[in-house]
Amino acid sequence: xxxxxxxxxxxxxxxxxxxxxxxxxxxxxxxxxxxxxxxxxxxxxxxxx
Length: 49
Description:
By secondary structure, the protein is an all-alpha fold. The chain has helices at about 1-15, 20-49. The protein is elongated and about 50 Å long.
């Protein structure tokens, strides 16, 4: 999840022109990853009980 933020920040610091499509794709990947990580976290917490 955080890798896309790191990528976008690194690209901005370096000064490379980034395409709008690439930024949108990384945003969608982040949004898809959120429920996956939430599910995995809840499942892990339940298994520790």
